Amino acid sequence: MDDDFQQLEVELKRLRPAAPTPALLARLERALAAPPRRAAAGWWFWAAAALPVAAALAVMIAFAARGARGAAPRSVGQPAVGATPLAQAAFQPVAAENLLYAAHDEGLVTLADGTAARCERFDYVDTITWKNPRTNASVRWSVPREEVRVVPVNFQ
Amino acid sequence: MSPDVRQTRRVMTLFRQTLPNSDRMEDADNDDSWKTWFQLHGPKLLLCARQWTRSLADAEDVVQEAFVRFWRHQRGLPGNPMALLVTSVRRAALDLGRRESRRAVREGRADGGREDREPVFTTPLEGAERREVVEAALCRLPDEQREVLVLKIWGELTFEEIAAQLDLPPNTAASRYRYALVALRRELTAADCHG
Predict the structure, then answer these.
(1) Is some CB atom of chain B closer than 8 A to the CB atom of A102?
(2) What is the CATH number of the domain that holds B167?
(3) pTM higher than 0.90 for the full model?
(4) Higher pLDDT, B192 or A8
């Protein structure tokens, strides 16, 4: 590169980029003082954890109801009244769907062991539908769920 | 290696040496080190961001997003922190640009939403008039040449780092830099002649 270019480079390097506005510094200060977004994920976690528990409960109710129906013919002499509410409450899960409504790539993060990884965050709404075949009543339950995937990366 | 890059590395090394592992990511609230770092590199980052955004306000938004993410999660990563930050800034700017383009199309803005640019540099260069001439010449460069020039001169990235940022071969980045210098020199010579 000739001398003209070198002179031009020197001239350009002497130009100082304009400083950010004080408003940006104030915004950064607020943003860095606020707790990281991870801390706010508490209730998401519990909501997500409640889903399998609810599913397990539903299965238990379904089994209990089926057991009650199966036991009913043998319990001759007993009033059928006791079995009826259980049988009527026999909701069975008939559909489960996940709707992904937001995905964020949070970039590179450092794991506890010092390795680099890419962090991706996905927001879903899980919807489970239960149906009572006898009464045709149905129950739909939707719960938000946040999924964080940490994928190790290699720098080559 | 430029004095700025050396100072950045000193600050980063100081962090790695003085903070225990568990504190590295969470201690930003309690010290002013990010301010020192940002004072040094914030203007350069903002200049880079302005190559990919429509206004100073948009550029500040993407710098904020990228810097907060970097300071919280990425400052312990190996490599040149400036290159990492520029990557982050560019991605945030491209995301914002896509959103804004859709909005501009919806609102029927013929200019794509681009706003008038505020002054990019502050240091007078042989007086304010010369600075304005250089700044105007820079603005007239094709976008792909100007971004390479800005990343090289003020971002202090190598051609390899610029190539990785822009997904180009390093030779193309170097060619664009040279074309930008040729075009700038032509513009400035013409401006000098017309006085």
Answers:
(1) no
(2) 1.10.10.10
(3) no
(4) A8
